[in-house]
Structure formats: structure tokens, C-alpha cells
Specification:
With about 60 residues, the chain is an all-beta fold. It has one domain (about 1-60). It is about 0% helix and about 55% strand. The protein contains no helices and seven strands. The protein has strands at about 1-5, 10, 15-20, 25-30, 35-40, 45-50, 60. A five-stranded antiparallel β-sheet has the order 3-4-5-6-7, with no helix packed on it. It has a two-stranded antiparallel sheet with strand order 1-2. A hairpin with a 2-residue loop joins β3 (about 15-20) and β4 (about 25-30). The radius of gyration is 11 Å and the shape is globular. The structure holds zinc ion (ZN).
Length: about 60
């Protein structure tokens, strides 16, 4: 479960999950069209990266 940084709605399920170094990364796709990644470490949330619409491969820290 994660909160969309754009519309603040909760997204129940991540569509993808993988390991990145010491982090666990989860990809979420909100119904509003926003994609974002949640980075956590030892089950603790560290930061969120938001995918900017229209700009491919451009993630900003939410
Ligand atoms: Zn949203």
C-alpha cells in the first residue's frame, strides 16, 4: 500500500517489486495515471520517486 504523490489516493498493490542494492523498490501505478516508485530499506520507507507525465524516464523526488 502506498499513497499517490499526485492525487493522494492510496494504491493497494504494487505492479512490480525488485531489489536495488540495499533497497527494495516497488512500482505503483495510480488510477490517475501517475507512476511512482517507493524505496524502502528493512521494511522502512525511505523515499518516493514520481514519474513525470510526458517526460519519459524522468523521475522526480516526491
Ligand atoms: Zn494518483
Amino acid at each position: 500500500m502506498a499513497k499517490c504523490p499526485e492525487c493522494k489516493k492510496e494504491v493497494a498493490k504494487s505492479s512490480k517489486k525488485w531489489k536495488y542494492s540495499a533497497f527494495t523498490v516497488e512500482l505503483f501505478e495510480c488510477a490517475c495515471g501517475t507512476k511512482f516508485r517507493e524505496y524502502s530499506r528493512n521494511s522502512k520507507h525511505i523515499f518516493t520517486l514520481k514519474f513525470k507525465k510526458g517526460k519519459d524516464k524522468s523521475f522526480v523526488r516526491a
